[in-house]
Design brief:
This protein is of the alpha/beta class. Helices cover 33% and strands 24% of the residues. The structure holds cytidine-5'-triphosphate (CTP). Cytidine-5'-triphosphate binds at residues 253, 272, 274, 276, 278, 303, 305-307, 322-325, 337. Cytidine-5'-triphosphate (CTP) binds at residues 253, 272, 274, 276, 278, 303, 305-307, 322-325, 337.
Length: 399
């Protein structure tokens, strides 16, 4: 979450979903944001201002003529202070007012004055939402650069079933974070591989490795947040699919080979963070293998090298980024891998470094480039490493 230190002006308007804005306020504050809540008069019929005051640690402002508030011209101060302006839930009424520049209360006047990005999360009865006038108003806002978070479909408080539910808090947080994130990967197709592969010995056993998938998932999450169209080809992991990412689940290296190669041509950037098994059992038993007192030897056979195959078939303009995890001679081995597999960039990490490698939330890496240059960013969260990787790939694209 990149909302720490940001001022979020959260406008709560009068719908039954107003209670969900309390959770949003709490989660925004936990993410380190300074949350300033504005409520319409009608929102206060659904939830009390003191709820937001307690959760945000800031005074809740309700109407323009509140004389007990420290700021001189409140709606202007808040409009200027906002890094991002959020209306959640947004009623049909505030959407209509926003579309037409009507400013007749604290929320609508502040909205009119702000230059911050505006996120609107509509929530209302399906009939009101589907009404062409509401849809037209939303189109007007979209055309003006507002970020509209689509409502969820399901059971509505009025008893109807359909579109109009305020999405859950993680979806709202994602939409808010996206509004303050530069969309510099917009229009690019990015494929990321992540996690381990599993190579079956028999129906109950497999060979695998310690990969948690965290680095690959962080890459997919950041690419999607920065506007890319992301496909994540993932081995078995315990991780949640990041927002906006299309996930393709695979089990073995050969599954991954098929999943990646069949999609490779369409990609602008491919990042191979997966820990692919180099070998698989030469034979997979159809039935569970029974133990005996004899020693057991398992013959292994080579898996296809996906990265090397991608490197051989790279189309002009496509960028390929590989990973290398080593326990010795990190740089020499990585530089050799970069050359052999025709990568544009290779991310090398040592299993011996503290804070790096399997299962950790941080990573210490060295980036190697095809022109022979190198860079070692400081130990940082895997999400930050992911951002650095895409920054460098974008720079390579620009050249
Ligand atoms: N990789 C791949 N297909 C494989 C094995 C590896 O695509 N069958 C990719 C990984 O996703 C990673 C990179 O190759 O991006 C490096 O993997 P690694 O196993 O370290 O490289 P190898 O070339 O197999 O080198 P080593 O001799 O160290 O095993």
């Amino acid at each position: 979450m990149r909302l720490a230190g940001k001022t979020v002006v959260l406008c709560v308007t009068g719908g039954i979903a107003a209670y969900k804005a309390a959770d949003l306020t709490s989660k925004l504050r936990q993410a380190g944001a300074d949350v300033r809540v504005l409520m319409t008069e009608s929102a206060t019929q659904f939830i009390a201002p003191i709820t937001f005051e307690t959760l945000s640690g800031n005074r809740t402002v309700v109407d323009t003529f509140d004389r007990n508030f420290a700021w001189e011209v409140e709606h202007i101060s808040l409009a200027k202070a906002a890094d991002v302006f959020v209306i959640a839930p947004a009623t049909a009424n505030i959407i209509a007012k926003a579309a037409h520049g009507i400013a007749d209360d604290m929320v609508s006047t502040t909205l009119l004055a702000t230059r911050a990005p505006v996120v609107v999360a509509p929530a209302m009865n399906t009939g009101m939402y589907d009404n062409p006038v509401t849809q037209q108003n939303l189109d007007t806002l979209r055309a003006r650069g507002f970020h509209i978070i689509e409502p969820a479909a399901g059971h509505l408080a009025c008893g109807d079933t359909g579109r109009g539910k305020l999405p859950d808090t993680p979806t709202l947080l994602h939409g808010i974070e996206r509004a303050v994130t530069k969309q510099d990967l917009q229009g690019l197709r990015v494929l990321v591989t992540a996690g381990p592969t599993q190579e079956a010995l028999d129906p109950v056993r497999f060979l695998s490795n310690h990969s948690s998938g965290k680095m690959g998932y962080a890459l997919a999450a950041r690419a999607a947040m920065r506007g890319a169209q992301v496909t994540l080809v993932s081995g078995p992991t315990a991780l949640q699919t990041p927002y906006g990412v299309t996930r393709v689940d695979i089990t073995s290296a050969r599954d991954m080979y098929d999943a990646v190669l069949s999609r490779a041509d369409a990609q602008d950037i491919i990042v191979k963070a997966a820990a692919v098994g180099d070998y698989r059992p030469a034979q997979t038993a159809d039935e569970k293998m029974k133990k005996s007192d004899d020693e057991l030897t398992v013959a292994l056979t080579r898996n296809p090298d996906i990265l090397a195959e991608l490197g051989r078939n790279k189309r002009p303009g496509q960028l390929l980024c590989g990973f290398a995890m080593e326990t010795q001679n990190l740089i020499e081995n990585a530089a050799d891998k970069l050359r052999r597999k025709h990568c544009d960039m290779l991310v090398a990490n040592s299993l011996r470094d503290k804070g790096a490698g399997f299962g950790t939330d941080t990573n210490a890496v060295t980036l190697l480039f095809a022109d022979g240059s190198r860079e070692t960013p400081p130990l940082c969260p895997k999400e930050d490493v992911a951002d650095i990787i895409f920054d460098r790939l974008l720079a390579l694209r620009a050249n």
